[in-house]
Every structure is written in C-alpha cells, then in structure tokens.
Amino acid sequence: MFKAILIERDERPYRATFASLNEGQLPAGDVTVRVDYSTLNYKDALAITGKAPVVRHFPMVPGIDFAGSVHESENASFRVGDRVLLNGWGVGEHHWGGLAQLARVKGEWLIPLPAAFTARQSMAIGTAGYTAMLCVMALERHGVTPESGEILVTGAAGGVGSVAVAVLAKLGFRVAAATGRQAEADYLKRLGAAEVLDRALFASPGKPLGKERWAGAIDVVGSHTLVNVCASMRYRGVVAACGLAGGLDFPATVAPFILRGVTLAGVDSVMCPRVDRLDAWRRLSQDLDLDKLEFLTEEIGLSQVIDRAAGFLDGRIRGRVVVDARR
C-alpha cells in the first residue's frame, strides 16, 4: 500500500482525497519509482481543485513532477536504485503523476537526477524552474545578452518567475520583476531583481506600440499582459512566453512584430525533447544559486497538499512548494 492524492469523478462530484492505494492499481509503465519528493504547481492546483479541465482520465493521481529512486524496472536504461526525476509528459493529466509515494511511468520520460542536486533540490526547481531555464535559453538562442538591455519577468513572485529572476541575475542581466504583490518586493530584490513593477502597468488593454524598453522578457501571464509586454519591447527584442495565468487569449496587433522585429518565442516544457531537458538541467546546475533556491522554497508533506492547492489560485503562494512524499 502507498499514499497518494487521488482525484475522482463518478456518480459523486469531482473530488480530491488523500488516499491509500494498492501497488496493483498503478498504471502501465516499465519503470516504477519510489517517490521521495514532488512539488505543488499551478497546474496541479487546477487539477486538485477542478477549476480547469486539467485531468483527462479518472481516477487520477495529480503531480507533474517527481524525484526518487527506481523501485522496479523492465527498462534497460534504468536499474533498481537509480536516482531519477520526471517533469511533464502528461503525468498528472493523462497518466498518474508524482503526488504519491509510488509512480509507474515509461522509462523514456525519466532522466537521471543531476549529480549537482539532491532529490529535494531538484523538486525545489521542478517543472517551474526547468521551464524558467528553457525561457532563459530561448532568449539566449535569439541573441539576447546582458549587454542587450533590461529583461522583464512577469508573474515574478511565482515559481517560474522566481527562478527566472534568480538565474537571470546570476547571469548578469538587469532584471525588472512585475508582480501584483508589492509586499513581495524585498523577496524579489533578494533574488536579484533590480526593480519591482506593479503588474497593473501591463494588465489592461494598451496601445499597439508603447515606449521601447525591454531587450527581452519572460511572460507567464498571457492575455493583455503579454500583449503589452510585446508592445514595449525594444527593436528586435525577444519575448519567451510560457504561461497563461492571466488568460488564454492574445488580443494583440502585429505592430510589434512587423515594425520592431520583435520575436515571440513559445516555450513548452511538457513535451520538450529529451536533449533539451538534459541541457536545461545542466544549465540549472551551473546558473542557479542554491542558496537562493533554498530561500524561495517552502516544504510541505503529501498530506498537506489538498489544503494548500487553493492558495495557488488565490495568489497566496510565492516561489516553490516542495512536497515530501514520505509524510
């Protein structure tokens, strides 16, 4: 038997419970992992609360991340005891995920736990931090350097934003952090933000073009925020877009793209190819200050996950939430 968060929808209403499950209930897969740590992400919160149709099959164990050791393996690439981690691939949506003490998955979804990190540290980074690194790499791939100018990070007090601020600052960029929680200004400056801006500056409908300011941006919000960020980019600026916390819509004009040559680079972490995942984790081992990682991390037990999920949707969570699956 093992403990897990279980989401069900049948003749009774949609619900999430802290349940005891049998190993025989695990889905198909060629590697079974004993989970040490998982995380609580925005997508997990949507799944647990049922506020968005994240879960595609029922019953479902949520959790888009986990790190632990191989318990059983029918995959030649992994042996019992190997330390591994997983981000994305639809776990917690289509396939049982990491908010559990055991997970059975396809071995091709796993990567070795980087030697630079403990299992806890890897989940303090989690999909949020790995996505932030993919965004930084997208800016670099399009030629953005610290000498190019200022970088804007929206949703900066959240998981992706917090890691992005920390990484960009360590790389030498001047970072402006946009947040709706001005009480977090000291927190963001401690991570490396040179300036903290009110998200209200970006949240309402704006002009097709604004004053040029940003050489690069990382946006997790979408909707009017992303539109206004694009409109305020410098000539040939680059925006890495990876989130939709403010909405799926993009009510924009083509003006920034055809008049200033702005690049809008989409960043997906779920189905990202293995070679890019490995590169992102390699970069994180070099470019993320572990002291800052600890500062932006909170730890809870698996039994506390359901109670904490609503906090994500209410904007009451900052940084990263690590889940100790053993308690």
User: Any idea what the radius of gyration is?
Assistant: 20 Å
Number of strands: 15
CATH superfamily of the largest domain: NAD(P)-binding Rossmann-like Domain
Structural class: alpha/beta
Give the fraction of residues assigned to helices. Answer: 25-40%
Mean pLDDT: 96
**Roughly what fraction of the amino acids lie in strands?**
25-35%
What is the distance, rounded to the nearest whole angstrom, between the alpha carbons of the first and last residues? 14 Å
Low-confidence stretches: none
The ordered H/E elements are EEEHEEEEHEHEHEHEHEHEHHEHE
Number of domains: 2
Instruction: Please name the CATH topology of the largest domain.
Output: Rossmann fold
Summarize the structure in words.
30% of the residues lie in helices and 26% in strands. It has 327 residues and is of the alpha/beta class. It has two domains: 2-113 and 296-324, Quinone Oxidoreductase, Chain A, domain 1 (Alpha-Beta Complex); 125-266, Rossmann fold, CATH 3.40.50. Strands 3, 4, 5, 6, 7, 14 and 15 form a seven-stranded mixed beta sheet that branches. Strands 10-9-8-11-12-13 form a six-stranded parallel beta sheet, sandwiched between helices. The protein has a two-stranded antiparallel sheet with strand order 1-2. Helix 1 (42-49) crosses helix 10, helix 2 (119-141) crosses helix 3 and helix 2 crosses helix 8. The longest helix is centred in the middle third of the chain and has 23 residues, at 119-141. The protein starts with a strand and ends with a strand.
